[in-house]
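// run 5 | inverse folding | seed 20
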């Protein structure tokens, strides 16, 4: 493999992946509309002769010859805000499902590019009664529009692989945290505490318990996509082997901001303490399959949260007393 294409490469996860790919001496082309991605995330690579950026929506990728020039597509372009999918279902469909179909169409026409590495999500499982949840669990019944869109993308990918001879590695990611994250529980808490350092609203009853991984570990899992697998479609869970509840995350974030007297105020939530419609109450993935290929999370959920909270605090936290 000499050259790869990364859709959504200006985003949180995508920009970290681009850096790792460039460090392996690959040629990397990034396609990103910059609707949610940030040009600043890629600015450090602008002088690298092996890096190319194309401002374009992945929905229009089939209109170009960009896929012809690469061996593998890392498809990360998506509207990744689970909670906001409630207010923009059409956008969720277009930026996830339509974009994935157009990437696959571009690959089908190109023929020279036969492998896609796709960042899916643990939300495809919905509410399960099996923990840790293996890749073989079913039926898959997503409870969020985001999860439904990711599952639809997986279905398209597997159909194209079996119909047109493509290969795919589908990574079902737990909650990814780290620097450059634009949304999620940690940026949300940091933002709220920058406005009011004495009281922190927590959506739901605070008992929601999920697995978290640091972005560095998520990137290592994505890089496994460059390997050859025995199956033309390989589905892999990616997560830590434990969970952490939301109140504990809130305490870690407050501590990272050196705030010792914070009142934690859960809203109570809906439907048994969920933060919003579509919020999965409990999530823990069985990662034994990906561990067979040499990957393992280097941090527990709490350690990943602590690292990410410290990184984001340095990036975006502004003490209210320092404001003009």
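// decoded
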């Amino acid at each position: 493999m000499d050259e790869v294409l990364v859709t959504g490469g200006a985003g949180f996860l995508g920009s970290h992946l681009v850096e790792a790919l460039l460090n392996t001496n690959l040629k990397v082309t990034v396609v990103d509309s910059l609707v949610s991605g940030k040009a600043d995330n890629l600015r450090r690579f602008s002088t690298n002769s092996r890096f190319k950026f194309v401002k374009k929506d992945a929905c229009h990728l089939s209109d170009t010859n960009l896929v012809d020039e690469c061996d593998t597509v890392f498809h990360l372009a998506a509207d990744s805000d689970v909670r906001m999918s409630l207010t923009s279902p059409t956008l969720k469909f277009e930026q996830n499902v339509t974009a994935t179909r157009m990437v696959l169409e571009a690959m089908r026409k190109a023929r020279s590019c036969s492998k896609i590495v796709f960042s899916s999500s643990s939300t495809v499982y919905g509410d399960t009664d099996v923990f840790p949840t293996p890749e073989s669990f079913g039926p898959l019944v997503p409870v969020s529009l985001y999860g439904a869109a990711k599952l639809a993308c997986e279905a398209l990918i597997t159909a194209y692989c079996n119909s047109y001879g493509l290969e795919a590695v589908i990574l079902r990611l737990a909650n990814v945290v780290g620097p450059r994250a634009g949304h999620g529980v940690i940026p949300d808490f940091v933002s709220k505490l920058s406005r009011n350092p004495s009281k922190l609203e927590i959506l739901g009853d605070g008992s929601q318990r999920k697995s978290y991984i640091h972005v560095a570990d998520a990137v290592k899992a994505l890089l496994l996509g460059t390997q050859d697998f025995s199956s033309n479609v390989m589905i892999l869970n990616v997560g830590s082997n434990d969970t952490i509840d939301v109140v504990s995350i809130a305490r870690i974030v407050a501590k990272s901001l050196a705030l010792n007297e914070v009142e934690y105020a859960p809203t109570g939530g809906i439907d048994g303490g969920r933060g919003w419609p579509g919020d999965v109450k409990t999530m823990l993935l069985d990662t034994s399959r990906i561990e067979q290929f040499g990957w393992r999370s280097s941090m527990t959920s709490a350690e990943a949260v602590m690292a990410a909270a410290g990184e984001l605090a340095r990036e975006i936290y502004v003490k209210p007393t320092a404001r003009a």
